[in-house]
Amino acid sequence: MVVQTSTRWGQKVRRVIAGIAVISLVVAACGSDDDGNGTASPTTAASEVTTTAASDDTVEAASPSGTLRVGVPTNVQSFDPHLAAVAQEYYLHPLYDTLVRAEADGSYSGGLAESWNFPERTVLVLTIREGVTFSDGTPVDAKAVAANLERGKTVEASPSRAFFANIMSVEMEEPSTVRIKLSRPSTSILSDFSRLPGMMMSPASFEDDPSTRPVGAGGWVLDRDASNAGEVQVFVARADYWDPGRIGVERVEMRLLEPVAAVNALLGGQVDIIEAPLADRDDIEARGYELVVRANTNVNYIQMMDTDGSLIPALGDKRVRTAMNLAIDREAYSTSQQFGRGVPTPSFWLPGTPYYDESLEQYAFDLPRAQSLLAEAGYGDGFAITLHTFGGLTAVAESVQQMWTALGLDVKVELVEPGTLAAVMRNGTTALTPTVARGHTAESHYLERMSPGGPYDPIGTERGRYAELADKAFQSETLEEQNDAWREVYRYAIEQGFLMVISHSVPAVGVAPNIEGVVMLPSDNIPQPYGVRLSD
Amino acid sequence: MARLIVIRLASLLPLMLMASLVAFFLLQLSPTDPAVVRLGETATDEAYAAFRTTIGLDRPIVVQYLSWLGGVVSGDFGSSWHGTAPVSEMLASRLPVTMSIAFGALVVGIVVGVPAGVVAGVRAGRPVDSALTGAASIGQAVPNFWAALLLVAFVALPFGLFPAVGYVRFGESPVGWLRSITLPAIALGSSGAAAIARQTRVGFVRVLHEPFVRTAVAGGISRRRILFRTVFRNASIPLVTTLAAQASALLGGSVVVEQVFALPGMGQLVLNAIRNADLPIVMGFVVVTAALMAIIQLSLDLAYAALDPRVRLS
Description:
The complex is a heterodimer.
Chain A lengths: L8 H23 L15 E4 L16 E6 L16 H4 L7 E3 L5 E3 L2 E8 L2 E6 L13 H13 L6 H5 L1 E8 L2 E6 L6 H5 L26 E3 L9 E6 L13 E6 L2 H9 L5 E3 L5 H6 L3 E4 L4 E7 L13 H9 L3 H8 L29 H10 L7 E6 L3 H15 L2 E6 L5 H5 L6 E6 L4 H9 L15 H9 L4 H17 L3 E7 L2 E4 L3 E2 L16 E2 L2
Chain B lengths: L1 H9 L1 H16 L6 H6 L5 H10 L6 H13 L13 H36 L4 H15 L2 H16 L14 H35 L2 H8 L4 H38 L5 H10 L3 H29 L7
Helix pairs in contact in B: 2-13, 6-7, 6-9, 6-11, 6-13, 7-9, 8-9, 8-11, 9-11, 11-12, 11-13, 12-13
């Protein structure tokens, strides 16, 4: 889903939403199709998915040429997929193919696994594509895939530890078939396999520090001599890549740039692609650069840890939480903080997506109703709360502070050191915090952020039917049931005031005019180099 | 003099030890958890704990320090907690960048500041003095980062002669290197030039009123000879102090300028390291910076002795 340059952002947002609506229709249509092509039905029992063999065979692959220069916001920490942070996936994409490919429209297609099926809700069988090799010549086969998954289970200090912990066993049934048994059903395993956990390393590289000497089956290899830690990482195209049609550039450079420097570098012609800051998007477009947007948003929201008033008694009253939600003026936030480029809805999921519930629009800004509810709950004189925040979230916290002050609350904003917000949220003394969800699935967001007894429920508060509803989603037999169940989980969370959406922001990259084929996939902050070419 | 140099170089060791000790224990006060920085906000508590063990944070602080010190003594500054390269390698690749723009800034400061100060001092009280002194005041008031942003917006982007971001190594292209450091050096050196101009002016005004200058004039010595042999040499002593102070300030100022121009220097490295609680890099930076400061001070002492025969090194 690529939205081209246009003069009106509103049109773009509508296109994004329309695109997402198409995704939902595609997904829904394929959910009832037991042998549908190219999309996923993760928990549909006995479903099987067979996918295309490679990129468009009818188009003759041109030789890769030129250098794609990408400005990236963070330094690489590790090239090992089992150790790399999610926020830095883009450094690993050139090096590693994934078992499953995510598509821009929200569907999944074959990667290193050419097909898959779910004979049971907790069993996934992958058929590994034949004839593919890692860059060191080692074949990508069931044995290599099993070795990767087994290794992932043993890495303790892994950001993906929760994912691997759900894998009970990995069995190699045939040379090209892997059977994965899960502890509990997963509705996002295909998404996971399109990201870090699905990146396959050459087993021969396990003992040779993959953090600095990565060996994958991707389209490029790391040029260590040309790279310089903290400055630039350079990748060179593989001549023996199995899907040459996807390799359009000979060399990829990822250069570490602060946001201001990144914009200057793009406008000065020194890089070809950057993350486009909201404040600079008009300027980028006005100067003839293209904005390519992602079809799913980052969500700023208030996360409630104290869902039953254990820390602040007023928060134990649903009417109070509802009043706080109603007092959030999303239109004003979008206008003032997002330059009109936000999507102001109280729903965690955008209109047109499978989990969107229109009834949640009743929680749109309504200050009189909010004040009335607060008074009804006996808190007409307000109560005191503190919002911890840092960096880019500070503007979010300060906006909410103004809105809730207008409601009558005594809101204090407290800055914390960068890198400490998660610890603050998880220390058992923090009632609620503004935060952001990026590139999430319903399951990953629920498990990582919201689940009762999970990492962000440090004091074990009462959350009503929340876990029961989520379990229904995990146990769903069909995709339709699954969508209905997740929709209900998020409707419940918002009705109960466990999460209060402040804004949706649409990630976008600025692209130089001579670059073609840039696509933002659902988890991308920086687009992958596959399919990108330099025009003449 | 050789003995003094040896002694001063030897004194580097306790200086660096003290600096590292203070820096190490100050860093312990940082609330930033490197495990959260490294693994993200959604990792499990077990993963966080495992990472802390991996980098040795589960050991007593004193043991951590002694372990780091032991590594440094054997030439190993350790590895970045969040990176892919040894600290010594990272510092070695970034030091030339910072030194390039610091040296360039110093050149800008001297080339612009000294002549301006001489002219203002010689023409003290006249319109040209007022104009130059005013310009120096503005130069000192303009923050480095703002000067950098102005240069990018009004020089780099419209004309394309100098790059808006990035660094070219001297070995790759001497011309490219010069182009890549020109604007950062001007941004960093502008306030230094202003300070040098003011100090030069003050020195010239003071020395021009000394009796020995009047004597020289009365003796028929040429004006140029008096200015550049007698006055300049005497006015240079406080100027050297200013230059030394500028050299130290340039290392601090480079942090900001490197960010604006995306230069992969020491400043950018340490700023990111502090943000990420990357202790090995910060400690390596402290040691290297302490050594540089000590060398600058030693150079200052040697310059004093060369300029003023009354100063004896012992």
